[in-house]
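Can anyone check this?
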Amino acid sequence: MELNDLPQMDPRALKATSVKAEDEHASSAEPQALKITAASSNPKMFTLPWHKPLATWPEDLLANLPRGISRHVVRFVHVGDEVYAMKEITRQVAEREYEILRRLQKLELPTVTPIAVVTGRHDRNGEPLEAILVTRHLKFSLPYRALFARNLQPDTAERLIDALAVLLVRLHLAGFYWGDVSLSNVLFLRDADAFSAFLVDAETGDLQVQLTDGQREYDIDLARTNIIGELMDLASGRLLPSDVDEIEVGNRLVDRYHSLWSTLTDTDKFGPDEMWKIEQRVNKLNDLGFDVDELEMKTAEDGKRVLVRPRVVDAGYASRKLLRLTGLDVQENQARRLLNDLDAYRASTWREGEELEIVATDWMREVYEPTVRMIPREYRSQIEPAQFFHEVLDHRWFLAEKAGHDVPMGEAVESYIQSVLPNYKLDDKAVNELNAEADSGVVDDEANYDKTVDDDDYNPDDDPDAAVWSH
C-alpha cells in the first residue's frame, strides 16, 4: 500500500483549535494570569467571578437546570442571553477536553458545543484554582436521571439505549475512542418517538484516524457494564419500572451496535443481474438516517460477482432535506415526521405537480408556524417546537380515532396543551433533588468551600488577572 492510500485524519479536525493540550502528567508551570481561550467572544465572560471556586458562585448567576452525575463540580451559568455549563477540572484535562470537543464539532458529530477553557485562576489570596471548561447548554436536553424522574413510557430505557448505540457508531466511524461510555456522559433530546444522544463528557476520549476492532469492542463492553450499573441504581431508587431487566437492556446496546455497524460497513456481494440491490442498500441506509458519499465497487476474484462497500459520511439525511426546504434545523426523526406531514399537505391540496420548495413555504405558513405559536410561554423552554408539532399530530390522530371523525388542528392543540403538555414540567423541588444527587458524586475539594464568604463587591476592572483574553 502506498503512503497516499493510508487513511488520513480529516483536515477539519486537524485545524479545529489553537489549543494543544499537554500530557496530563506534565509538570509545566500554571499560568500566573487569567487566560480565557474562547470559541465565542461573549463579552459577559469578563464579568464572571473567576476568582471564586465554582461551588461558591452566587445564586443569581446560576440557572436551575437538572445536572447529571459528575466527579467534578458542574454548574449552569447565565452569561448574557446564553446559558453555559461550567466544569471545574485540572488545566491539562480542561484543555484536552476542549481540544477534543472542538475537533468533534468540526466533524459535525453530536456533542455539546465547547465555548471556552479558562486557566490561570487564583483566589483573592493568590492561591491557584482549577481550570474551568465552558460548554453551551444543549437546549431542551436532559440527563437520563431527569428523564426517569418524569412519567415516561415503559420502554424509555430501550429507546435511550437505541439512541446511545447510534451515537457510539457515529463516533466510532469518525475514529473517536470514548473510553468511558455511560448514560451519565450523555445528554438526551426527544426526537419524535425516539431520542437523540449527545456526548457531553470527553475527558477520556481520543480522536484517531481509524479505530481497531479491539478499541471498539472495549468501548462497547464498558458501555454495557456501566449501563447495567446505572439502571440498577435507578431501580434501587424506584425510578425504573419494575418490569425492566437491567442486564437485558445492557445486552440490547451490544446487539443494536453490532447490527447498525454491520449495516453501515459490510461489503455486499451481488451478481451481474442484481445491480438493483445496490439502490436497495442505499435506500436502507437513507432510511436509517445516513448519507452515502461513495460506493466502492470491484469485481470479485471469481469474476462472477461484484463487491459493493458504501462509504457512509454521517447521519442526518432527513434533517438536511428538511433544512433545505424549510430552514428548520431539527433532529432526524422529527424531520422525517415533518416531511411526512408536508407530503400529506401536498397531496391534500392537490399540488403534486408543483415544486416541493414552493409547497413547503405554504406548509410552513399555513400549518407548522400557526401550530407552534400556540405553545404556552411557560413551556417554551421545556419542549422543542418540532417535538411539540409531532406530539400534537399524534394526539390529533388519537382524538380522531376516539371521535370517529377528523379533528381540527386547533382543537387538537388545545386538548394536547391541557392533557399532555403538563407532563413535561419538572418543578423546582424535583430539579433540586436531582442536583443534590448529582453533587453527591463530586470528588473535588472545592465542593466543600465556605459559601459564607461575601465577595459580591468584586469588580473585574480592578482585577489585573482579568485582563487577558486569548482567541
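Reply from J.R.: I decoded it. Residues 213-236 form the longest helix (24 residues).
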